[in-house]
Write a structure and sequence with these properties.
alpha/beta; 9 helices; 14 strands; 17% strand; binds adenosine monophosphate; binds magnesium ion
């Protein structure tokens, strides 16, 4: 392990860049989890067509407890399997400062303490949580060596931290510990029997459809107010408006601009906070400007269409 490379990776991350790093499961594409813009870059680099929530990596249980409320079962699982290939979904702490984009606007957070020594050292050096999905373009195989990452993303990311190959090569098991009965959300390296030996009341009934369709999470954040897409001028009283670019049509009582400059990465970074801010009873609805369907704009439009479909 080369401390100079780790320091370089940490510096680039703290400057808001995305960096690939090894974990024991697969190579991760990391960004500082409190930085909305850096998180938006992850989606842009991966060309994900949607905003699935990301796993937030921390170096220890105590750091996890600063971000999420770990139930007794969650604590038992952490004691048994951390550091290691297990992800625990918990409710967020009230003062959790993780970027809304990293958790897709949810009130829950997926947490993991990785065991790989390079990942551990990087987290320690950075001193902040890292959101990190697998370091591959959306839909392609997860990489287990730095060469895999170089081949599939080399021209798109600032730095690839070298390290021993990801030994496991399979994603972490994900367990939702927000309900009384913990649920398997995604099968992974830690088996159901291993989990049951620690928490016998565990439910794996979800296992057949547990690799959830993108955006099909049970707790997907959905605004209460009606959402009107491709909006021009206001069509009713008290409508709020989410703008994109310099043109603001007339008649809205409140406007939040996702990006005055028309920058889609900036727009993605502000999307969830704009929806949260405007989803208030004093408004009659949220109208949204047309967002170009290119690059990360696909994911923005996917999220907006879901919000509009569930509410109208
Ligand atoms: P990965 O692509 O390996 O980073 O895994 C991300 C997956 O973790 C998502 O697709 C979800 O299935 C799951 N996940 C992350 N955050 C949450 C959350 N807050 N609630 C439920 N599942 C989550
Ligand atoms: Mg993946």
């Amino acid at each position: 392990m080369n401390q100079d490379s780790i320091n370089k990776a940490a510096k680039l991350l703290l400057e808001g860049n995305v960096v690939a790093f090894p974990t024991e499961t697969v190579y991760g594409l990391g960004a500082i989890a409190t930085n909305d813009t850096a998180i938006a870059k992850i989606y842009e680099v991966k060309q994900r067509p949607n905003f699935n929530p990301l796993i937030v990596h921390i170096e220890s249980l105590s750091k996890a407890q600063q971000l999420g409320v770990l139930s007794n079962d969650a604590l038992k699982l952490a004691a048994a399997f951390w550091p290691g290939p297990l992800t625990i979904v918990t409710n967020k702490q009230k003062n959790c400062d993780i970027a809304l984009l990293a958790t897709a606007g949810l009130s829950t957070i997926a947490l993991r303490v990785p065991a790989h020594p390079v990942a551990q050292n990087l987290l320690h050096t950075v001193g902040k949580p890292l959101a990190a999905p697998s370091a591959n373009p959306s839909g392609l195989l997860s990489p287990t060596t730095s060469d895999h990452v170089k081949t599939c993303l080399g021209d798109k990311i600032s730095f690839i931290l070298e390290g021993a190959p990801a030994e496991i090569g399979i994603e972490s098991s994900i367990i939702d510990c927000t309900e009384d009965t913990p649920q398997l959300l995604r099968p992974g390296f830690i088996t159901i029997d291993q989990i049951k030996s620690i928490i016998p009341n565990f439910s794996d009934t979800n296992q057949n459809h547990s690799i959830k369709a993108p955006g099909a999470l049970k707790h997907h954040y959905a605004p209460q107010l009606p959402i009107r897409l491709n909006a021009q001028a206001a069509i009713k009283a008290n409508e709020a408006f989410i703008a994109f670019g310099p043109n603001i049509p007339k008649g809205y009582v409140k406007v939040i601009n996702l990006s005055l400059a028309g920058d889609l990465i900036e727009a993605a970074s502000k999307l969830f906070s704009a929806l949260h801010q405007l989803d208030q009873p004093q408004y009659s609805g949220i109208a949204v400007a047309t967002i170009p369907n290119e690059g990360i704009g696909f994911a923005i439009n996917d999220r907006l269409k879901r919000a509009a479909a569930t509410q109208n």
